[in-house]
Task: structure prediction
Amino acid sequence: MFSDELKALRRMGLRQALLQALNFCNVIASGLMMWKGLGLVTNTESPIVVVLSGSMEPAFYRGDLLFLTNPVNEPYLVGDITVYKIPGEEIPIVHRVIESHYMVDTPLNQEILTKGDNNPQDDIALYKHLKWLERRHVVGKVRGFLPYVGYVTIAMNDFPQLKYALLGTMGLFALISRE
Result:
């Protein structure tokens, strides 16, 4: 299947192979810099997330790609869709704000209560030992989405072999390409 590519890789000199590997590393580094730059512009650690469950249907479905911002001086209003992380948990949750109040009269001291559109109850049970979410728990506010584009990410997480096969194929093609 890859016999021609492997032959081309063997014919390539050490210097050419190292140059190809350096180009591949450059592409990876550029992607990471773009991700971090987008995070700085949007003021969020994760400017793009994928919906992993059906708790927000019909607003968002599993596999939808969400674009986030985290406005510094803008309060979260009832009805806003937020992405938040509970301390000690890795996976962020996408739910709608159903109540909001301020500890002090500034938007930076806001506490919110959320609920999934498709869930019967609010999220207090998900908050563990918290009564309300504080702004520091919120990753961002949803500003836009692309339907079903995130299924690629879900498939790679559900089938790790697919992820390794895709990464290996991309690495091989990066090494054997002549440009």
